[in-house]
Amino acid sequence: MSDNQSSTDMRLRPSGSGLRFLPSGSSLHRLSALLTLLLLIFAFSFTSPAFFTMNNGLTVLLQTSVIGLLAIGMTMVIITGGIDLSVGSVLALSGVVAGLTIKAGVPVLPAMGLGIVAGAFCGFLNGLVITKMRITPFVATLGMMMIARGVALQLTGAAPISRLGDMFGKLGNGSFFRVVEMQANGFPKVIFPGIPYPAVLLIVMALFGAFLLQRRQIGRHIFSVGSNEEAARLSGVNVDRTKIWAYTASGALAGLAGMVLMSRLVTVQPNEGVMYELDAIAASVIGGASLMGGVGSISGSMIGAFIIGVLRNGLNMAGTSAFIQQIIIGVVVIGAVYIDQVRNRN
Amino acid sequence: MLDVTAQDAPLVQMSEIYKHFGGIHAVEGVSVDLYPGEVVGVLGHNGAGKSCLMRILSGAMLPSGGKIYVNGEAADLRSPQDAKHYGIETIYQTLALANHLDAAQNLFLGRELKTRFGNLDEARMHAEAQEALRQLNPNFKNLKDPVAKLSGGQRQVIAIARAIYFQAKVLIMDEPTAALGPSETAMVADLTLRLKNEGIGIFLISHDMHDVFDLCDRVMVMNKGRNVGSFRIEDVNKDDILSLIIKGTLPDGWTPRGASK
Ligand SMILES: Nc1ncnc2c1ncn2[C@@H]1O[C@H](COP(=O)(O)OP(=O)(O)OP(=O)(O)O)[C@@H](O)[C@H]1O
Ligand SMILES: [Mg+2]
Crossing angle, helix A298-317 and helix A322-345, to 10 degrees? Predict the structure, then answer.
């Protein structure tokens, strides 16, 4: 007691007075990630003139949308202190379910809905295995990664499903505000390529995800479970239900990402999406999510997804080989986490 | 116990509670009761089973055997929510705070206030938390910091504020002042007496004999998981209690000491 006596007064003084206007903690991380992204865009604009163009910007947006959708769910799962290795495979299985349903004569929209439900169901199973069977998330979702891929390949005999109709390609290839002008010579000229549906979808889902995490009870519970599961339980948080919710959301978003990707290809490829889970994890981690749980944000993960997308796209344009790209992205992931840790230690 | 009038029924009655972890017998057939407006001290050496007994009443731990009655009716406390429904609030020894959340977010964790649209009502939670914390510690200012950044004493103040904010009928305090300085400890002592006078029943786990003699109406001593004695505080002195805690028995030739404290 007497030991506490002297230090109590000092400890109770208000902290951080004066420096409050400086960003701290996670917002600082997001700021540095955003700066990194801008720097990358700046650098690539110099190395290849075609990089900083409207068309290429939209391409990046389109390419990033799939990883971005996966990263939204992944971030929620990572904040609970878990991981979801199954999203790449679930994406493929959802596509297969949608493709087969269309082939069975169901219209595109309900079929796509069923594909997303299939993804959500896979996520729900992940949640059940993790909470009720008490299997660690790594192992449970590793299992689901193999199971979902196996089911997808088994259902299709590993063959792509094509000729799904024009309507199936709309989600992945359509865009808002596309302006095309007929020229005098009879050829159409694209004045504004439009904002691709997938990009709009990504923005809508990211805003919705951020709203759930920041403004709703479920989000608060997701953070509390990842921060201190026992404290959350003792406070009356239904820990199992919270985790199941997060994995189900991740599965559903993987399903949605599957719809976008397969629609863009206008074909269902049962072997699509391999290793996408790693890109999604990398996006979350670059964006400041902690694999220890309790920390992370959708906005950060979106920046992370775009860092990966811009890196891929820019390196491609600069003629860097796919192998070197892997190496660079690997270094970026480690570097992002290392910088964050160094900063936290100070 | 079931034939007495409701007025006289104990607020809480724990009867023949057992808790085993494999071969470890943490609680061995302990019975204890608590009446409105009284403070019962739960004493014992480290590892005697005090926290386990109290966690069973909090719904945080399932007993291996035994029954719990609240207001004379059998209560099945399978989760912390169940216990909270009965008005049983707990200040855990471990404090049970989520490090990444701030004071208000912790205070309302699991019982968030919401707006008309079901969104989190941060403004109201913040204001209420500020009010609740200021009552315990007028200097409490860093409400927006994650609690990981706060001192042990500040964290403890949050845990206490959380337990009393929700109008407990039964309050379990597991070493509530372990990390507090003298003025905060005095504040908690005042608070304990105030709550007691409001008719709340309090279980107080403490190793501090001053607290015990100042605040408790009765004491229950545990030794190696067993209840080795329940006494009115007037009937024992410090040496008797220490003997019970250490040896598990009263000194030779003990007789109730009456009010000769
Ligand atoms: N979750 C658990 N699993 C296994 N053993 C446990 C668990 N919780 C408590 N125990 C054991 O039960 C016994 C009683 O522990 P308890 O925490 O109730 O002691 P305590 O009286 O509160 O001690 P202290 O004064 O140190 O807080 C100890 O031997 C402890 O090791
Ligand atoms: Mg204890």
Answer: 140
Closest CA to B198 of B42, B56, B28, B37: B37
Q: What is the pLDDT of residue A7?
A: 36
Q: Between chain A and chain B, how many beta carbons pairs sit less than 8 Å apart?
A: 112
What is the predicted ipTM? 0.90
Is A7 within the bounds of a domain? no
The candidate with the shortest Cα–Cα distance to B237, out of B257, B223, B218, B220, is B257
pLDDT(A14) > 80: no
| Per-residue pLDDT at A332 exceeds 50 | yes
User: How confident is the model over A142-162, as pLDDT tens digits?
Assistant: 999 999 999 999 999 999 999
A94 is a domain residue: yes
Chain B positions in Cβ-Cβ contact with residue A5 (cut-off 8 Å):
181-182
pLDDT for A339 equals: 76
Q: How many domains does chain A have?
A: 1
Query: What pLDDT does residue A24 have?
Result: 56
DSSP conformation letters of A298-316: HHHHHHHHHHHHHHHHHHH
Q: Nearest C-alpha to atom 25 of ligand 1 is from which residue?
A: B46
Residue A141 belongs to domain with CATH number: 1.10.3470
pLDDT of A25 strictly over 80: no
Tell me, yes or no, whether A37 lies in a domain. Answer: yes
For B184, nearest residue in chain A (alpha carbons)? A8
**pTM (two decimals):** 0.90
Tokens of A39: 């720097």
Which of A1, A13, A224 has its CB closest to that of B101? A224
Residue A4 and residue B142: Cβ atoms within 8 Å? Answer: no
Show the domains of chain B with their CATH numbers. 12-101+170-246 (3.40.50.300)
pLDDT confidence of residue B3:
44
Q: What is the residue range of A99's domain?
A: 26-345
Query: Taking the mean position of all CA atoms in its chain, how far away is CA A122?
Result: 17
Per the domain annotation, does A4 fall within a domain?
no
